[in-house]
C-alpha cells in the first residue's frame, strides 16, 4: 500500500531533490545523453502533450535531441524547475514523487517568460546507489488531463 | 527568544518543506477539506489582500471552496509555489516558517502566467506527528504591507 | 578532484538551501549590510551582466545599496528565487553550489512578472559554523555566457 514517507525518510526526500536538480540541468544544458541515462533502460516518459509515450532511453534521447537542436537553432534557453515535491513509498521498492514543474524560456537578447505550468508524477527506483526514473507522467495545466 | 534553527534541525526544515508541498497540492487540486485540515482547529489565515482574517478551519474551508468553485467555473488551474524557506524556532514549541509564494494561473487551452508574488509567514506547530499551521500571514507584493 | 556530494552530505545540502533562503531575503528586503556579510570579506560577485566583478564586502554592499535605493524609488519589490540546487564537493574545503535563479518584480499596485532567468555558480565555504560565498558567478540566460 502506498504511504506518505515519514521523518525517517528525510534523506530519501533530499536525495530525490538533488537528483532532480542534476537531471534537469542535463536537459537544459543540452546534455541529452546524460538526461536519457537518468531514466531506467526501459524508462517511459509520457505527457498529455505527446500523442504517445517515449519508451526507452534510446527514444528519450532521440526526442530530447530533436528538441534541444530546435531550441538551439532558435536561440532559446529553457529552464525546467521542479518544485513542491512530495514523496510516497509505493511499498514495492519504488517511490512515487510528485512535483510541480515550471518551464521558463529566454530568447537570446530577449525577455524571460513562463512557458508552461505542469505537474510531474514519477515512479523512481534506486539502483546501485543511483536514482532513476522508471515512469514519468507530465500533465500540462493548459491541456485536458 | 526566537533563534534560527541549526544543523541539528535539518529534519525539521525538511519536514516543513514536505508539509508545504502536500498542503498546497490539496489547495490547487480543490481538496479544500484536506487543505483546511492543515490548519489547527482555530487556525488563522490572514492576508493583506483580505479585509479580515479567516478564523478557524470551517471558515478557511468555506472561503477556499468559494475560490475553488470560481476557478473551476472559469477553467483556471492555479499553482501555489512556496519556496526560499527559512525557519526560526520560537522557543515556545512553535516554529516560524518564512517563504516566498508564487502563484501561477493557467486557463484551459491558454497561456500559463504569473499571477502574484507574495511572502508567507507561518506559525507552525507539530501535533501528534503532524505539522499544522496555527497562523498564516500572506503579504502580496503589489499591496501595502 | 570535484565530486558530487553523497547521501552522507544531506545536511550540507540542506544547510546550503537554508543559507540561500536567508541570504536572498536580506537582499530582497533591502538589508544590504547583512547581504554583504553573506560573502567572505574578499568575496567576489561576478555576472555576465556586469562590466566587472564586485570585489569585497564593501563594494558588494555599496552596489547593492544603489540597486535597493533605485528599486525603492520606483516602488518595485524584487524577489530572487534560487532553486534546482546541486552541490559538488571541491575537495579543498569548498563546495560548488549550482542553482537556477529566477528574479521576479512587482510594482506597487501592479502586476508581478518574471524579470530574469539565470544560473548561479557559487564557491561556498563554511567558517565558524556559517556558510559564506567566496565567489559567485551569475549568468543571465538572455546574455552571452
From TrEMBL, chains A, B, C:
The UniProt entry, under Pfam families, shows: SnoaL_4
Q: Which Gene3D superfamilies match?
A: 3.10.450.50
Q: Where is the SnoaL-like domain?
A: 11-136
- Coiled coil regions in record: none
Looking up InterPro entries in the UniProt record yields:
NTF2-like_dom_sf (IPR032710), SnoaL-like (IPR037401)
* Top-level taxon: Bacteria
Protein's UniProt name = SnoaL-like domain-containing protein
Query: Which species is this record about?
Result: Amycolatopsis xylanica
Amino acid at each position: 500500500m502506498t504511504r506518505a514517507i515519514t521523518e525517517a525518510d528525510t534523506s530519501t526526500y533530499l536525495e530525490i531533490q538533488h537528483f532532480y536538480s542534476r537531471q534537469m540541468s542535463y536537459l537544459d544544458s543540452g546534455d541529452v545523453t546524460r538526461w536519457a541515462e537518468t531514466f531506467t533502460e526501459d524508462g517511459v516518459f509520457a505527457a498529455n502533450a505527446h500523442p504517445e509515450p517515449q519508451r526507452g532511453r534510446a527514444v528519450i534521447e532521440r526526442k530530447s535531441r530533436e528538441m534541444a537542436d530546435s531550441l538551439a537553432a532558435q536561440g532559446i534557453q529553457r529552464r525546467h524547475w521542479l518544485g513542491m515535491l512530495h514523496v510516497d513509498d509505493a511499498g514495492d521498492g519504488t517511490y512515487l514523487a510528485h512535483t510541480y514543474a515550471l518551464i521558463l524560456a529566454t530568447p537570446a537578447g530577449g525577455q524571460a517568460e513562463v512557458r508552461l505550468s505542469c505537474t510531474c508524477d514519477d515512479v523512481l527506483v534506486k539502483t546501485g546507489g543511483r536514482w532513476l526514473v522508471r515512469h514519468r507522467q507530465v500533465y500540462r495545466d493548459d491541456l485536458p488531463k
